[in-house]
Amino acid sequence: MNYIEIIGFSAATLTTAAFLPQVYKTWKTKDVSGLSLPMLVMFFVGIFLWLVYGIYIKSPSMISANTITIVSAFLLMYFKMKYEKR
Amino acid sequence: MNYIEIIGFSAATLTTAAFLPQVYKTWKTKDVSGLSLPMLVMFFVGIFLWLVYGIYIKSPSMISANTITIVSAFLLMYFKMKYEKR
């Protein structure tokens, strides 16, 4: 692995890890009042496009980071829709 | 501008825009109780490393997105430190 991919993977680890506490907190508390569905959808589509970009430019760190983050974004959208009505 | 940079700039617009309501809300309400400083610092450092990565691989969309997002992340850290003690 070359030098720049080490920077990329460090970036990927930090930015994906920063989302996990939010996913955990929302799952545990079922409190979705502070989450905005339009924003989550925008974010999800944005991350999907970054994933397409990463695949196109063949960036291992971008592909890894965005694959993990798209799962986090999907879970937050799912929790928002599931718990909103209760 | 080539095809893949259009995808990149669409991704950049969506993921940076998804942060602005959080910055605005925190600025208006001064409510930083839901924000975690260690997470904000991790996120800030992560975005800084993505910016370095974007500059290195000469990606215009990654440079733009991460420059704007690093300002958002910095503002959230600043608000957290400024309003925490009040």
UniProtKB/TrEMBL annotation, chains A, B:
<protein>
    <submittedName>
        <fullName>SemiSWEET family sugar transporter</fullName>
    </submittedName>
</protein>
<dbReference type="Pfam" id="PF04193">
    <property type="entry name" value="PQ-loop"/>
</dbReference>
<feature type="transmembrane region" description="Helical">
    <location>
        <begin position="62"/>
        <end position="79"/>
    </location>
</feature>
<keyword id="KW-0472">Membrane</keyword>
<keyword id="KW-0812">Transmembrane</keyword>
<keyword id="KW-0813">Transport</keyword>
<feature type="transmembrane region" description="Helical">
    <location>
        <begin position="36"/>
        <end position="56"/>
    </location>
</feature>
<dbReference type="InterPro" id="IPR006603">
    <property type="entry name" value="PQ-loop_rpt"/>
</dbReference>
<dbReference type="InterPro" id="IPR047662">
    <property type="entry name" value="SemiSWEET"/>
</dbReference>
<keyword id="KW-1133">Transmembrane helix</keyword>
<keyword id="KW-0762">Sugar transport</keyword>
<feature type="transmembrane region" description="Helical">
    <location>
        <begin position="6"/>
        <end position="24"/>
    </location>
</feature>
